[in-house]
Amino acid sequence: MRGLLMLELLPPLNDKNLPWLDVIHPIVVHFVIAMALITVVFDLLGVITRRRNLFEVSFWNLVVATVAIFVAIIFGQIEAGLANPYGAARDLLNYHSTIGWSLAGVLGLLTGWRYVVRQKDPTVLPAGFLVIDGVLAVLVFCQVYLGDMLVWVYGLHTVPVVEAVRSGVIS
Amino acid sequence: MSPRFSELFTTISSPINEIVDQLGANDLPYIFPVHPNLVHFTIGLFAIGIAFDFAGAFYPLEKRVFRYLALPVTRVGFHDVGWYNLLACSLISFFTVGAGFYEMLLAVPLPGVRSVIGQNAIDTMLWHAVGGVALLLMIVAMTIWRGYQRFVWRKDYGRQVSWLYLACGSLILVLMGVHGSLGAWLASEFGVHITADQLLAAGADLREVLP
Fold it and tell me: In this complex, do A34 and B41 lie within 8 Å of one another by their Cβ atoms?
């Protein structure tokens, strides 16, 4: 690893193989997971209860999710680069990265669409948007599943796994 | 503690042993812990709810920026996010705490480990448990306070929340940060409910059991 330019820009790595105290990506994704899924919930509630102001609530949550996912990707890429995935975790991490970048595109498109429609009338949800919401929720669930596999099954960036990787017990 | 008592602790085994054949390597009857997934909602909804009430409170300052961006924004819209996000946070956080207790009763932290702040496993778990209940109480109290401000005390005001409410919200966010760190260390340092960590502690070869 020595000699890599990016690593020289970061502080020395700790016992979780991180240049900072704890993983940051799982903290940032609070705001992607919670805001994206609550957008779907508030859209649905808005349609069912006809409380049109809920569409405004879901719009702003969608905006937050869209901003947050780019921050999540930045930290995700750095921490993935330091994760030393082993066994099947390598594939899982690749899928997680692919869906992550795709979600950024999907969230960006949805926010743009909602922005344009909202300029005309903020009390209207575009036709068929609930279907798109469903697709968004499925994507987020898949992404959370993959992230959970990396943390809770493969233990990437946890002290025992980092120790085992460094001593060559797993690779 | 007298030596006789400590002998008792080593001879009476944990009640988890009675159901050990129903648990996986992560000490749970299912593949991932539920609590850390619900935590996304508790923290995300609370933080963004408070943030949007701040946005509503400082609306007079932001107006020009939004006009420049040609983004139609209403103050009441910001406060709607503050209210509904907090309400959703309150509802889901009961499940966060419930799942947390279930999974803590099944937790088997790795022995002999100290966290970044020098705490051992049981201290970290107890602080995280008691702190979790205290935070749930604070979240619910904030929601009731928020509701009274929205529908009774401040219903005729443009700014739907008092400065004290915003200050309390910010303080609770700091507490959540510390509290969340304890929870994160239970996983990343004490290996609680992490399959790979538990297998390594048991002396298993991950190349075979976790390909």
Answer: yes
Q: Which residue has the tokens 């995280």?
A: B128
Q: How far, CA to CA in Å, does A2 sit from each of A6, A8, B90, B141?
A: 10, 8, 48, 52
Q: Which two tokens stand for residue B211?
A: 């390909």
Q: What contacts B98, CB < 8 A, 6 or more positions away?
A: none
- Let me know: does B154 contact B146? Beta carbons within 8 Å: no
Range of the domain at A158: 24-166
What distance lies between CA B142 and its chain's CA centroid?
16
Interface test with chain B among A152, A161, A169, by most B beta carbons within 10 Å: A152
Whose CA is closest to A141, among A43, A48, A36? A36
Contact between chains at B110 and A21 (C-beta distance less than 8 A): no
Query: Contact A101/A67 with Cβ under 8 angstroms?
Result: no
Place of tokens 């004490």: B190
| Binding-face residues of A in 136-165 toward B, CB within 8 A | 144, 148-149, 151-155, 157-161, 164
Q: pLDDT digits over B92-127, tens only? A: 999 999 999 999 999 999 999 999 899 999 999 999
Helix (H, G, I), strand (E, B) or coil at B13: coil
Per residue in B10-27, pLDDT tens? 677 778 888 888 888 999
Q: Domain for residue A68, yes or no?
A: yes
Helices (H), chain B: 3-11, 35-57, 59-68, 75-105, 121-148, 163-188, 195-201, 206-209
Question: Each residue of B60-71: pLDDT tens digit?
Answer: 999 899 888 888
Query: What ipTM score was computed for the predicted complex, to two decimals?
Result: 0.92
What pLDDT does A12 receive?
84
Strand, helix or coil for residue A2: coil
